[in-house]
Design goal:
This protein is an alpha+beta fold. It folds into two domains: 31-202, 3-Layer(aba) Sandwich (Molybdenum Cofactor Biosythetic Enzyme, Chain A); 206-291, Alpha-Beta Plaits (2-Layer Sandwich). It contains ten helices and 16 strands. Helix 4 crosses helix 5 and helix 9 crosses helix 10 (262-282). The longest helix has 21 residues, at 262-282.
């Protein structure tokens, strides 16, 4: 049958009970996420973008689909345009990291406000959260500290269990924009304390994966085997990751499946793993497997 989802008419069908074509899942079934990582330090190589890696892993585990990571400088126009571009791609969730602090180059919220032509205003709930943090430190609210409570109109704060700058959530149409601090511990704490529950309520599909370690055979020898198994069981996505080198090959095969029933998905992964193991051993390889 055909359905219209997110403005697109798609041919939509189940490949087998409880499983969907990977491409169709991405277009129609899963919530689509984009991450916008903000900070000059990321683009000059001073800081590794561990926040994006963490978010991709956690969102995928929750059943979401991360379509894109964008990294931009601490620049108002760059931030706002990246948000507008993500919106134009019918993104369900846009998560920004960095730029929520008290300094002049912390301008993520201003960039989000600019993207939607919203005013920045002091949010009383956010101000109270910031005040409570500094009250515990016996320090006053200064203008630079109050800056962390200025949110785009209509936005709501997310409590920061560790640091001072609250996270922020804003809904524009069907899209949720979430702004998180750039300090990894703070970003992770807000995600686990507040954001995980919000996302989980919005996602119905499940995600499972399995990793296989393949020894004594080159990736180029495994490639046709992957093609054969993919044709037989297209529900499972198979990705190869070389870990060794041609003289001493070691390949990681990462198997992933998205569907509705976890037990059936686990059986599907095991079936694919068994097929791969049998075929790889026939060409002299050795396979070790671990269920993630």
């Amino acid at each position: 049958m055909s359905v219209t989802i997110k403005g697109k008419t798609l041919l939509f069908y189940k490949l087998s009970k409880g499983f969907y074509s990977l491409a169709l899942i991405r277009e129609a079934m899963q919530k689509v996420f984009e991450i916008v990582s903000i900070g000059n330090e990321l683009l000059i190589g001073k800081v590794v973008n561990s926040n994006a890696s963490y978010l991709c892993k956690r969102i995928t585990e929750l059943g979401g689909f991360v379509r894109r990571i964008t990294v931009v400088r601490d620049d108002l126009e760059e931030i706002s345009s990246s948000i507008r571009e993500a919106i134009s791609r019918n993104t369900d969730y846009i998560i920004t990291t960095g730029g929520l602090g008290p300094t002049f180059d912390d301008m993520s919220l201003e960039g989000v406000a600019k993207a939607f032509n919203l005013e920045l205003e002091i949010n009383e709930e956010a101000l109270q959260l910031v005040k409570e943090k500094y009250d515990k430190l016996n320090e006053p609210l200064t203008p630079h500290r109050i800056k962390m409570a200025k949110l785009p109109r209509g936005a709501k704060p997310l409590k920061n269990p560790i640091g001072t700058a609250p996270g922020v959530i804003l809904e524009e149409g069907k899209t949720k924009i979430i702004c998180l601090p750039g300090v990894p511990k703070e970003m992770e704490a807000i995600f686990e304390d507040s954001l995980k529950e919000i996302i989980s309520k919005d996602i119905t599909l499940k995600f499972l994966d399995m990793s296989l370690s393949v020894l004594n055979v080159k990736e180029s020898n495994i490639a046709p085997i992957i093609d054969e198994v993919r044709k037989e069981l297209p529900e499972v996505y198979i990705k190869s990751h070389p870990k060794g080198y041609e003289g001493s090959p070691k390949i990681e095969l990462h198997l992933t499946v998205t569907g509705e029933d976890a037990e059936s998905m686990k059986m599907m992964l095991q079936k694919v793993a068994k097929l791969l193991e049998e075929k790889i051993e026939l060409i002299g390889g050795k396979v070790e497997k671990n269920l993630s």
